[in-house]
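so the lab meeting is tmrw and i was supposed to have these ready like two days ago... anyway. pasting both below. for each one the top line is the aa sequence and the line under it is the structure tokens. i havent really looked at them closely yet so no promises
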Amino acid sequence: MQEDVFPAAEKILSDVENIFKKDIDLTSFEIIPVEDNQNKSPVLHDNNSLGLASWCIRPLFCYVYNRLFDLRLNQCRREHSTVISKWLLGALLLNPDILTFWNMRRQFIRNGKLDPMEELRFVNIVLYYKAKCFEAFSYRRWILKLLLFKNQDAIHKIELLFRNEIQISSMAANRYSNNCHAWNHRKYIISMFETVCISVFGSLLDKEWEESTSWCNSHVSDYSGYDYRQFLLKRLLLRKRRYDQTKICSNVLEKRRDIIIKFVQNALHDYNNVFLHTNSYENILNLLHGVNFTKYSEVTFEQTLINLSYWVEDCIINTKLLQTFSGHETLWYHRRFLVSSLLALNNSYTNFFLYKIENLNSTVATTNISKSLLEIALKMQNKDLIDVAKRISFIKPYCAR
């Protein structure tokens, strides 16, 4: 059989296209191992799932691949856009890593031949089959920019789009471990959310933090998931009180302060200081960061304390995981990130009494760093963790630094 000759190709492609059109709840695509055609249709559809028999994959892909490149090279007659769209659907469903084919679909969207929302649904299925496909995620972001431009005043629609993208990135991350493209896509969506839907961004950030905690607890070696967690932590450390928020809830303040107090007391063996239990959040932060200055009038110390509590919370979670899974390199690298973050936090607080983005990217020490109560507590925890790791014969590069 010649590579560009497959009599059943057009029928198979039409069947697949019809399933996409009729089943709006289609969720998945898989290749089903079948040795020969057995005189049956290779297209399988059941319970919102699409399948193709493996025997037809190679000849079908060769058929659409050659047709599409002949078209681009003007070596075949001009085809109607619906036929080309059908070929592209088959080609990208089987091999979504070909940028040329995605660019052809981009051109169809520009010309009004394809519906952007339907394209997002198509890419959902592509990512189910090949969850770590950079080109598919890039195509989604391109479509989102178009939809964002068309719906600038429809904030509710934009918010729904963004939340759907978060679900898609979760699906892709679950189907392919260490899926950096899925987590980077999620970062992009969170950044867009922060810009466009600022009124609900705070609640989204809290929810993402909780979901990240659950994910990292059950995927202790997923370095891409931890990279996303570090991205969230930086956002939380830099979070400011909303312009329409007149007062921070006292219950939230008490809860976040207790997290910090327990961390210090557990690390320093029931360390107690009257300033840790005071209602002066300025005094608490000064003690934690080892500084002793007069009050800086423009700073909201309550918000700074809440922001710091997320770093402390992450240290506590990381400590518990290392006590159980001390042989996992990802956890130690994340610990290293927490240590470098503390140096940056101390430096920023010493200079500004809050945390600034330019300081979080620098770990230059100040003269007051050695007096930081947080640093002393973290050093004690690190010493205990390293001793435990050595006892069970796991010596990590972190131990030598």
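ok protien two:
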Amino acid sequence: MADELLSGSEGTSGSLPTVKITVRPNGPFRVEGPFQLVDVEGKEWDIAGRAIVSLCRCGLSTKRPFCDGTHGKEGWKCDASPVPVEPVAQG
């Protein structure tokens, strides 16, 4: 079963668009929804027109930060179970 993280960012109409990040078993992060992808220098990647993006998790892709399927060819496995996250204090 894939783990999912839901997050939102402010929209112009006051509603919060939903971004869905799915951790694929032994594969990439699948990102769906409106989001920005920024490199270490603060430059935004051009992902216009892409409703779904797969981001490399194995570090083997030749198209990083995007997944190119190399994890499958190389037999990359991620056996780590999700780590519980401490609740954030409200207030």
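from a quick look at the 2nd one: Residues 32 and 50 are 9 Å apart (CA to CA). DSSP finds one helix and four strands in the chain. will dig more after coffe
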